[in-house]
Amino acid sequence: MQKGRPKKVRFIQKIPIVRQFSPRGKAGRPDEVILHMDEFEALKLSDFQTFSQAEGALAMRLSRASFGRAVREARRKIADALVNGKIIKIQMGDAQIGVRQKEATRANLASYSLSRAASGRPDDLVAREVVRLAESIPSLVTAVKLAKGH
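Now predict its structure.
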């Protein structure tokens, strides 16, 4: 039974094709670690695509704190599996999953956050932070200017 309020929809790029990783060289049936889909996506965005917490949170439509918790939990589970020779299974978990239509790239996030910031929502700190981050990266300055209409 879930405690507290329901989890928000967590957006992922696509469901992974490979959903299980097994250690070799360990006799018998090893224990398992369940990595939820939102934790997998957070780990992928953070460690594989090298997104900052603000960028990853925006891509998954989460708060930075929730994104950070998902990354921390995913890293803990992966480390447990590697150190103790456990099977890693990627499963849906208890969160609702929404699949993104476009791949999460820094340029896509910059244009998305600009549209959110321009919608008159001054409380949208994540959108403003991602715009600030995007503008600090030279390769994205052009994308940000195009999204602003300059």
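Residues 57 and 67 are 5 Å apart (CA to CA).
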